[in-house]
Amino acid sequence: LDGQAVVVAGGASGIGRAIAETFAAEGCRVGVIDLAEPIDERSLRADVRDYPALQTALATFRERFGRLDHAVCAAAIGSGKYGFPFWNLEPSDWAETVNVNLLGAVNFAHACVPHLIEQAEGSLLFLASVAAQIGSQTDPPYSAAKAGVINFMQCAAKDLASHGVRANALSPGMVKTPL
Q1: For residue 133, what are the CA distances in angstroms to 127, 136, 147?
Q2: Do 150 and 128 form a contact (C-beta atoms < 8 A)?
Q3: Are 50 and 107 contacting, i.e. CB atoms less than 8 angstroms apart?
Q4: Residue 87, C-beta contacts closer than 8 angstroms, at least 6 positions apart
Q5: Closest residue by Cα to residue 32 from 19, 53, 150, 51
Q6: Can you give the pLDDT at residue 41?
Q7: Cα separation, 41 vs 151, whole angstroms
Q8: What's the average model confidence in pLDDT over 33-55?
Q9: Rounded CA gap, 126 and 101, in Å?
Q10: Predicted confidence (pLDDT) per residue in 108-164, tens digit
């Protein structure tokens, strides 16, 4: 990994930050995209719900690093609502969580893929969750959105394979983070 270029969306805190720090410890040049204020010169402020902003951020990182080897989408939010039973939630309680967790991953992938395909190599990693696989009753919008991320990753993996780009999803269990 030494010298490879990595961008982590949602890399200012939590699991995303740990991923960014681990890539850096392995000798990678790491850039972070997050809603939080930039933590250093390698980070940019952008919202994964804003596709044009992600395109600009990825172009900036590509200019800085000369290439993009690995892209990680770790940006996520919970609904902030306890969902057991699910009908305790209103349908309107779902939109923001789905927009950030699922559509944000879609936007991030769309912004990264042209750079990865141009190089005919690289990887795209989506952070999902064990909640996506078990249908966690504590936060149904989060569980459903992360299940959508896994399905989208499966589609992306099939589409990108012939271009030499790998797509995977990682489903951590419960991890104590700001989320």
Answers
A1: 13, 8, 7
A2: yes
A3: yes
A4: none
A5: 19
A6: 82
A7: 34
A8: 91
A9: 10
A10: 999 999 999 999 999 999 999 999 999 888 999 999 999 999 999 999 999 999 999
Residue written as tokens 């064990």?
Answer: 130
- Whether 142 is a known active-site residue: answer yes
How many distinct helices (H) and strands (E) make up the chain?
6, 6
The CA distance from 139 to 56, in Å, is: 32
Greatest alpha-carbon pair distance for the chain in Å reads: 50
Give the pair of three-digit tokens for residue 20: 């960014």
| Residue with the two structure tokens 């590509």 | 62
The predicted structure's pLDDT at residue 179: 67
Q: d(Cα 113, Cα 119) in Å, to the nearest integer?
A: 10
**Global pTM value:** 0.94
Catalytic residue among 61, 94, 142, 152: 142
